[in-house]
Structure formats: C-alpha cells, structure tokens
From TrEMBL:
It comes from Sphingomonas ginsenosidimutans. Residues 1-26 are annotated as: Disordered. GO terms for molecular function: DNA binding. InterPro entries: DNA-bd_HTH_TetR-type_CS, Homeodomain-like_sf, HTH_TetR, Tet_transcr_reg_TetR-rel_C_sf, TetR_C. This is TetR family transcriptional regulator. The keyword DNA-binding applies. Residues 9-24 have a biased composition (Low complexity).
Amino acid sequence: MESAAPVLAPESTAAPSASAPASPRGRPRGFCPDAALAAALGVFWTRGYEGASMADLTAAMGITKPSLYAAFGNKEQLFHKALDLYETEKLAYIRDALEQPTARAVAEYLLRGAVAAQTSAGDPKGCLGVIGAAACSNAADSIRTHVLARRESSHAALVERFRRAQRDGDLPDHADPLALAQFLYTVLQGMAVQAGAGTSRADLDKVVDTSLMLWPGR
C-alpha cells in the first residue's frame, strides 16, 4: 500500500510578531483541521489503528502533538473522527445502494461501489472498517467494538431493504433477507482483504460478476 504522505508543512515554531493578533486561547494555529484529518485518515487506512503511531500521525498531519490533542482529542477520538470522514466521503455508495429500485440492483451497486472504493488509485487499498475490526490487542477492544457497531447499523439497514423487497415481490419467498445481507458482507470483507493484498480491480469485478450469478431475485 502507499503510505500517507504529509499534506501540510510543519507548524512554524517562530515567535509571533508583536503586531500579529493573538490566537484565541486553546485554539490550534497554523494548519487546516480538515486537511489534517484527511491526512490522519490516510495513516489509519494504511497502517490500521494499532499500527498508526502518534509520530506517524503528527508527521502526516503536519502538526505537533499538543495541536493534535487540542484539535482532535486523543488517538482514539481522532480515529473516530477519521472514521466519520471515511464513511461520509468513501462509503456514500452504501447509502446510494439502498435507494436502488430492486434488491439485485442494491447488491450490484453495493459490490461495485466497494470495488471502486477499495481499489481507488488515490487512496490506500482495502477497507478501513475491516482493518479497524481486526485490531487485536486489549487496548484496542473499544476500537473494534465501535467499528463493529457501525457495521451492524449498515447491516441492519440492508436486511430491512431486502425484507421490503420481499414484501414487494422483488425477492422470492424462499430467500432469506438476513442470509443475503450476510452473504454480501462476507463477499465485501473478502474483497477488502484481497484489495489490500494487491488484487486488481478487474479481478475483483469478476468476483462481483460471479456473486451476482447466485442472486435469487431479478
């Protein structure tokens, strides 16, 4: 994977001139919080929560530890904010998938959106959620729990969408909405691992094609 490169110059350590207005007390100076958070997201996405050291984060964000703490809180709070950004910017396809007119279209939109996100040339490969859920030390238990809770929310929305499709006659009676949602998430997670290992988009698209051949509806 590509490592996250610093997006900003380090904060200046020079003393402010006498004529320069003082910054509000407690407010970090000299960097853009949005750009710094995007840089932190790149580090977490590349290295995982446990693999991302404070030195990695501050270097990529172009800020000092005190500024990081003042703007974002501790490392765990920073990860939560980075995950919010990830879901808003990189996982919008999940929300759009739920709006598709048929259950099969939902499945295809979800799978192809995941492939595009997991193999994007401008981002690290794989899925931040899968990386976060794999955190294994006792210290990272809260991170894993938080990531899994977010995943469960998306999973529940998908199950409900398939239940609605079944009520509308779009899925046959023998189809199990819960099992279909679990099937898709299993494929999604497997593709994320493969993407992280360097599998090409073309090969992952073939996985999507094969998965859709097994779909029970139209």
